[in-house]
Amino acid sequence: MLFLNFIKLIYYILIKRNFYILRKNFINRNFNSEVPLFYSEYLLELKKNGYIVIKNFISTQDCEFIIKQIENFLIENKELTWHDDNFSDLRIHGAENISEKINNFYSNKLSIELGEYYYRGRLENLMTMANKTTFVKNNQGSGQGWHRDGLNFQYKAILYLTNVDQNNGPFQLIFGSNKLFNILKTCFKYGLNPFNTRIDNEVAEKIIKNNQNLLKTLTGSSGDLVLVDTSLIHRGCPLNKDKRYALTNYYYPKNLIKIYSKSFKPLIKNKFY
Predict the structure, then answer these.
(1) At 84, is the secondary structure helix, strand, or coil?
(2) What is the CATH number assigned to the segment(s) 50-260?
(3) Which pLDDT value is given to residue 1?
(4) For residue 263, what pLDDT is reported?
């Protein structure tokens, strides 16, 4: 198994990663990478940390209104929602189609344009996911444990609709885990298959135990926006109490958007407002 994982790692480094970079550079050869001054400070922080938090992105009143819309949809359209096995993690894929206010977040220019300057290429928003996570015994939090969305570039905008503290499911990440050196180091040290994006909790805990500063827990207030490179190892922390509501925009390279559109079911495509 270790030898097979080693072969997969070599394949990723020498072939798959280089092919991805070449294709990206070719497709985005006409992309204007000159960064407007307005984005420069955000971009520096995003490049340095892999994430940024923008406070008070929308008002508390708007958050409360959106929560009511999410709750009504979850009650009236159960067949159009996804849930985990213990109903702790409830999701509406394509939530931009259930509410004008959610659609405003889906269409937000700051999130996608900043992501494009970070990626240095064109992105497209596949959907907005509305998420309600509730404390249930043995819940795994939003996303069902530690994982990365992919080895190559991945990017999300997460809008907290409730106050989020250590107890009700804050977004957590392992700092630097999206860097090639750290991907290689983690795969070698723990014998991981580089193409398996799920990370065992024991492995994540060992990585963090070796350096507690690597664990970043992003608490915040209702209306705060998190922009994050989700090729980092991350999770929604398991809840100890209460609940958390959030919206998430899923951004992908424009040329790959059709591939990922098949990954989310059910996916709402018709407007409900």
Answers:
(1) coil
(2) 2.60.120.620
(3) 66
(4) 86
